[in-house]
Amino acid sequence: MEIHGSPVRFMPPSGPVALRAARWGGRLLIAGVLLFFAFPGLLAATLVSRSDGRPGSAQVQALQRAGDAVVALRVAAIGGARSADSLGRERVGSGVVIGPDGLILTIGYLLLEAETIEIVTQDDHVLPAREVAYDLATGFGLVRPLVPLRGIEPVPFAGVGSVKAGEPLLVATGSSSGTEVAFTRLVATRPFSGYWEYYIDTALFTSPPVINHSGAALFNRNGELLGIGSLFVMETGGPDHGPPGNMFVPVQLLRPVLAEMQATGTTRASVRPWLGISSSEHDGQVEIVRVDRSGPALAAGLQPGDVVLEIDGVEVRTLEAFYKQLWKRPAPESDVVLTVRQGSEVRKIKVHAIDRMQTLRKPESI
Length: 366
Description:
Order of helices and strands: EEEEHHHEHEEEEEEEEEEEHEEEHEEHEE
Shape: globular
Largest sheet: 8 strands, antiparallel
Distance between the termini: 20 Å
């Protein structure tokens, strides 16, 4: 998307490097899974399922099936895509098979304005795919291969209530030479407010960080899917509380909307007012840091550096409060009155909000 003002960047971490698991006929070697259990003090205490200190065969098989379900995704956005400025036109990430028909769950921003989507299997087969859905509200995306994915079982889901802070977890990313795995820990489970007009009530924060987080699968010790990788963040413990790590969108948010996403391509919650701004929250203030060149906020006169004090006369001091007040409207196309401080002056600015989904370009065939 085109933006006006200083960029906010989530810089990739310098480490740790993901551990690539060996392959055996396209499957993770059991030796690779055993390595997952081989770190005393870090993993064994919570991941061992046998009294002799070795993982049980059922658990190893579950982790192997989970690894087999992870694929790589390659996406090319349509020419002139507005999202190319921030995401690039060529995008790579991961996905995980969640349906018996090969339905793949990934992070939705990879699919924005996609012209072509390819699935790259662990034995380097490239399969064409199509976008099934993008849910702006949760951030999830769904992809389905145009030819069958054979020999891959869908992964089971786990709720965030099944994992506790400090618990070791496994992050799996797809590649053409085998699933890559990295070890991490759950730091916190809490709400997340994104600067790009995004909010979810529950997010999973893990550390140490994984570089290739886009669409990466977060598994527990039983090979159950907990979340899908979204971001690198500097403070996993909350504002001013490290360490750096990743934010994962929990799959429990998918359960209530999966059928709707497959049926309609989105969800009702995604059809909501959009202003076209990026904002930060600090010391009880919401400050605009970027303004989208194609969004309604720029046309209304909002600028980077403006501090949002009220929305429709209701005071907002956090991004969460700002977004929830904005999204109360029953229709996305509506006038919103923002009280903002511009320098030393306080002004009321009317912005005609629009539907974000209607601003995204699509290939001619869609």
